[in-house]
Amino acid sequence: MIPIAKPQIGAEEKKAVLEVLDSGIIAQGPRVKAFEEAFAAMCGVKHAIATTSGTTALHVALLAHGIGAGDEVITTSFTFIASANSVLFTGARPVFVDIDPVTFNINPTLIEGAITPRTKAIMPVHLFGLSCDMGAIMQIAKKHGLQVIEDACQSHGASCNGRKVGSFGTGAFSLYPTKNMTSAEGGMITTNEDAIAEKCRVIRQHGMRRRYYHDELGFNFRMTDVHAAIGLEQLKKLERNNKARQENASYLSAHLKGATVPHVPKGCVHVYHQYTLRVPDGKRDALRTHLQENWVGSEVYYPVPVHQQSFYMAELGYHLSLPEAERAAQEVLSLPVHPALSQADLETIVARVNEFMGG
Fold it and tell me: In this predicted model, what pLDDT tens digit does every residue of 183-227 receive, in sequence order?
């Protein structure tokens, strides 16, 4: 089976972990600090704050911006549910707008129509490794005095018009094993604002500025040095691995027939956390079965938009129509694009898709 994802863990990561274990400093310590500094440099920002996951990174970032009960955060429904759930964790309410059918990202032309007196922030999600239209989104945020929390959990190293994602507003990244880089599990917040960075550090560590003096309600969202050691080695490989993903994606796009391949807008650098097709005419599920029977992994990200999840409908009262998100959920299919693919793997993927699609 050609897997849909394959974490790239090598001897460097294993050696780094053993060094941490031998040092006796296992909890948050010097490796976390070094990882934060290196990650901030990669994104081109002043600060990076490590957390336990991408979800907690989003949660802390929202809290640091004062998002809470009664507030609204405009975001997309076509994403992993953690994006919207992180808003709920603060007591605020996610407000969903539809997606651009070409990029699968939030449609900026619909954002202003969703703004109310309760709106405090916009949360664009850089889905599948492609940046949202951050120029348009930042203009809207500035016009209306809104905060921008970038969900960059799938887009390590992606950029928009020469700027890395996570550097426009306050960014949140996931370091889950299937991402473009991993720390086994973990997250990272990025910001250029000193006050926001300080607030994030306090929230992630029980509300402490001084040891055992708790100034506010906080959480235990600290990263360990073990995880940071893995993350540091992975960060060194990120550019190389992203290039491999881009080369694999270019081959697939040049040879696949009968489906709509990913679009990369001018000025964007796509890092292909996922290589996602749009499969027309109700053929998506049959294609996926065909690939499975022929030893090619694939996955549907995501089969149910957040606004149609049972909890959001039954418990939170979401009943709205987002036709482009709903259509995408019926047509998208992600194929393997990870750096471990061989040329033979790529040729097999193309052959199996094209024989089904009639290409």
Answer: 999 999 999 999 999 999 999 999 999 889 999 999 999 999 999
What residue type is assigned to position 209 of the chain?
Answer: R
Structural domain that includes position 126: 11-97+105-232
DSSP state of 212: T
Cβ atoms 190, 168 nearer than 8 A: no
Are 92 and 72 in contact by the 8 Å Cβ rule? The answer is: yes
Looking at the structure, do residues 297 and 185 belong to the same domain, yes or no?
no
Q: pTM for this one?
A: 0.97
**pLDDT of res. 160:** 96
pLDDT at 359: 61
Single-letter amino acid code for the residue at 35: F
Pinpoint the alpha helices (H) of 256-332: 284-293, 310, 323-331
Q: Is 2 helix (H, G, I), strand (E, B) or coil?
A: strand
Residues 165 and 28 in one domain: yes
Please enumerate, as own/partner, the contacts of 243-251 that have beta carbons within 8 Å and a separation of 24 or more.
Answer: 244/339, 245/129, 245/180, 245/271, 245/272, 245/273, 245/275, 245/337, 245/338, 245/339, 246/270, 246/271, 246/272, 248/272, 248/275, 248/337, 248/338, 248/339, 248/341, 248/346, 249/275, 249/337, 251/346, 251/350
The pLDDT value recorded for residue 127 is: 98
Rounded distance, CA 231 to CA 107, Å?
A: 32
Structural domain count, the chain: 2
3-state secondary structure 34-100: HHHHHHHHHHCCCEEEEECCHHHHHHHHHHHCCCCCCCEEEEECCCCCHHHHHHHHCCCEEEEECEC
